[in-house]
Write a structure and sequence with these properties.
single chain, alpha/beta, Dihydrodipicolinate Reductase, domain 2, 2 domains, 14 strands, globular, binds NADP nicotinamide-adenine-dinucleotide phosphate
């Protein structure tokens, strides 16, 4: 199954149920909705997406969006008029803009998908929130925890929906894994191993090699296995790590060990120089679950009992829509239709927790980002 990895990748108003608050105010007046109350009414018709940036992952996301009932690509915004037009024509967008501001001022866009490189997420996300748009932002939400915290605080203050595009948490295999763990099928979780790696181009101009474009395997790839273990084990009591750094200080591969008050241990490995197994194993005192690759959208899970009568392993398979990104779009639709400002499947507090752990991981591994200098 093709997996999205870094290589790859003034309109007429029709009137709609979702309306954002007035734009232009940096801080909401006291009369604005209290934190966590939606600034927009629940979506009742098709959900109208605005695509902000036209790179590799935006392409993959839009192909999956075409498979989601009720999704419309209403508009595309790019730094380039020509790229917006070309991308928009390919994906059937009604309107295209040669600026992010144009896209954000379109009244017929309900939710903005931010797909710029991560150093530019915060600017786009804050502008979209200010415009009263719901936002799905590519991972990692911020370059560092302080950025993620600022975006989450802004969305909560404004009452707008915000979700990190951590599509892994929405895929059927990962949802089933969480159900099996919650049902106690492996007992108390004692060990989680999660890995993700791919062999990416070593071109120094590539986004994942260029520090100015946020290059960091921990941020780009490691965010998945780190989210995976955090989703199951919560906040660790300690984290140690090592990384392999390029001549420009980019972590090309990293390994983390996390320990927990519960007595559990987790390992996280990530690489952009090796196509690793990209699997996970979740082991408890009654059994283990072997998660097939890729961990973001596992096509199958194998449950092996290690206590009691030791029955035959059980295999669980769940169909995946598209490459799996469709499931996060479906979750966004569900939340908007329910009037939620946050997805219970992808909680913002956990996005921030993982961002803090990434900060710790970079410190442990000696990784310095341009903004840290
Ligand atoms: N969910 C996943 O599986 C997955 C996979 C890969 C990447 N990602 C994430 O998605 C984001 C984008 O990755 P990508 O691989 O799609 O990158 P990409 O192919 O380089 O595309 C990023 C796009 O952002 C815009 N852009 C580039 N430089 C910019 C700048 N300096 N300021 C503002 N906009 C700029 C460009 O669009 P315009 O020319 O239209 O402005 C560019 O095409 C990253 O945060 C990455 O972590 C997620």
């Amino acid at each position: 199954m093709p997996v999205p990895m870094p290589t790859s990748a003034d309109p007429p108003s029709t009137g709609r149920a979702i309306q954002g608050p007035p734009t232009g105010a940096a801080d909401p007046p006291a009369s604005e909705p209290a934190a966590h109350e939606p600034a927009h009414a629940p979506a009742t018709g098709p959900v109208r997406w605005g695509i902000l940036a036209t790179g590799g992952i935006a392409e993959t996301f839009c192909r999956d969006l075409a498979l989601v009932p009720g999704a419309e690509i209403a508009a595309v915004g790019s730094r380039s008029t020509a790229r917006a037009a070309e991308f928009g024509a390919r994906h059937g967008a009604a309107r295209t803009y040669g600026s992010h501001a144009g896209l954000l001022s379109d009244p017929d866009v309900d939710v903005v998908y931010v797909a710029t490189p991560h150093p530019f997420h915060m600017e786009a996300v804050l502008a979209a929130i200010e415009a009263g748009k719901a936002v799905l932002c590519e991972k990692p939400l911020g370059m560092r925890a302080s950025e993620s915290e600022a975006m989450v605080a802004a969305a909560r203050r404004r009452g707008t929906f915000l979700m990190e595009a951590m599509w892994m948490r929405c895929t059927p295999g990962v949802r089933r894994l969480r159900s099996l763990v919650d049902e106690g099928r492996v007992g108390q979780v004692r060990s989680v191993q999660a890995d993700l790696g791919d062999q990416l181009s070593t071109d120094p101009a590539a986004r994942w090699q260029n520090p100015d474009l946020g290059a960091s395997t921990l941020l780009d790839v490691g965010v998945y296995p780190l989210t995976f273990v955090t989703m199951l084990l919560g906040e660790p009591k300690a984290l140690v790590g090592q990384a392999v750094l390029s001549g420009r200080g980019v972590d090309n591969a990293a390994g983390l060990v996390l320990t927990y008050d519960s007595g559990a241990i987790a390992t996280v490995t990530c690489s952009q120089h090796a196509r690793t197994g990209s699997t996970a194993t979740v082991s408890g005192d009654r059994g283990r679950i072997e998660v097939a690759a890729p961990i973001m959208a596992p096509p199958s899970l194998r449950l092996v009992a290690t206590a009691g009568d030791d029955p035959d392993p059980e295999l669980f398979t769940d169909p995946i829509i598209g490459v799996g990104m469709a499931h996060e779009a479906i979750e966004v639709h569900r939340c908007l239709q329910a009037g939620l400002t946050e997805s219970p499947l992808v909680p913002l507090d956990e996005t921030v927790l993982v961002a803090r752990l990434l900060d710790q991981a970079r410190q442990a591994c000696g990784v310095v980002l341009p903004g840290d200098r």
